[in-house]
Design a protein that fits this description.
CATH architecture of the largest domain: 3-Layer(aba) Sandwich
Strand content: 15-25%
Number of strands: 12
CATH class of the largest domain: Alpha Beta
CATH superfamily of the largest domain: Glycogen Phosphorylase B
Radius of gyration: 21 Å
Number of helices: 12
Oligomer: single chain
Helix content: 25-40%
Order of helices and strands: EHEHEHHEHEEEHEHEHEHEHEHH
CATH topology of the largest domain: Rossmann fold
Length: 324
């Protein structure tokens, strides 16, 4: 069986490595020449907007044209399309022509893989729920975990929808956390550092920003050292950052919704803490107060997020849809 993959990132790399352990599955990464000339049993796409965009108008127009040709080729060859629905919508809006192509991808999709049971899909879609895998094969748990000091951590891209300014404000007004510091690790996009966020950083020396791409080993050490990872997203659906923090046995504070309630049920209320509505200083202080001063004992049970079983579930989907 031949299946096409997208460009490398930790999630895709770990999934592909696990899939390649199955001798019946051959995985090829996406490129335009390969996509337009190779015959696949299954074409698996995770972020379709990744193939419809480009750094210039010419590149975008070319990508959209190639996308039309790709969809026509897949339809003509009766290739089944498997789509992973990661986000409810692309984080950045594209131009009008892109929306038509993305809707065409949706209509052409044979089967959808979702990482939770709450992802909305087009009416009549065939759905397979396969969870997001852990990161312990990528970011190693420190052999001698550092002590959890009075440090809170936000990590990841600094984007407007991730609520980093709300976190900085809640931290600044939390009198109970006067002995803590807040580290912000991650590269901002153009909308990331708002005037409000910059003012809060300038006014509070206990907020320590590091606005750069942080290497994996440095990021893992920061997560393992933090007392609590806080991800105050305005809308949280599937989050690799949550799984990364839990993979390194660091508790998280995240917004309350049906998906995060499932995470709390799966991993326990000691490691998954929820807040309602917009993050406040009271909610932040309460979450920290629940944590032991010397950190939580034991490892987070990641059995349900094992990549071998996740790859097996993907391969079963590919086999099933390729026979339709």
């Amino acid at each position: 069986m031949r299946e096409s993959a997208t460009k490398i990132n930790p999630f895709v790399t770990m999934l592909v490595d696990a899939l390649r352990a199955d001798p019946s599955v051959t995985v090829e990464f996406f490129s335009w020449p390969r996509a337009l000339t190779t015959r696949y049993d299954v074409f698996h796409i995770h972020w379709p907007e990744a193939v419809t965009r480009g750094p210039s108008r010419l590149r975008r127009a070319t990508s959209l044209l190639l996308s039309v040709l790709l969809l026509a080729k897949l339809r003509f060859s009766r290739t089944r399309i498997v789509r992973t629905a990661h986000n409810l919508a692309p984080h950045e809006s594209g131009w009008p022509g892109e929306q038509l192509i993305l809707k065409a991808f949706d209509r052409s999709t044979t089967a959808w893989i979702t990482m939770n049971a709450h992802t909305p899909l087009p009416v009549g879609s065939r759905q397979y729920v396969i969870p997001h895998g852990h990161y312990r094969d990528w970011y190693l748990v420190p052999e001698h975990a550092p002590e959890h000091g009075p440090e809170l951590l936000y990590f990841g891209l600094v984007r407007s929808y991730k609520g980093v300014d709300t976190l900085a404000a809640a931290f600044s007004h939390a009198d109970d956390l006067a002995d803590h510091r807040l580290r912000i690790l991650g590269k901002p996009d153009p909308s990331g550092i708002s005037a409000v966020l910059q003012q809060l950083i300038d006014a509070n020396p206990r907020i320590e920003p590091d606005f750069r791409y942080v290497p994996d080993t440095e990021l893992a050490a920061a997560i393992a050292r933090a007392r609590l990872v806080v991800l105050p997203y305005k809308n949280m659906h599937n989050s690799g950052a949550v799984l990364l923090a839990l993979s390194l046995n660091t508790p998280v504070l995240i917004p309350s919704n049906p998906i995060t309630h499932d995470l709390r049920t799966e991993f326990g209320s000691s490691f998954v803490k929820l807040f309602e509505g917009e993050l406040t200083s009271d909610a932040l202080s309460a979450a920290v107060a629940e944590l032991p001063a010397d950190g939580l004992e034991g490892d987070v049970d990641m059995t349900s997020r094992d990549w071998t079983s996740i790859a097996r579930s993907h391969a079963n989907v590919y086999r099933e849809v390729s026979t339709w």
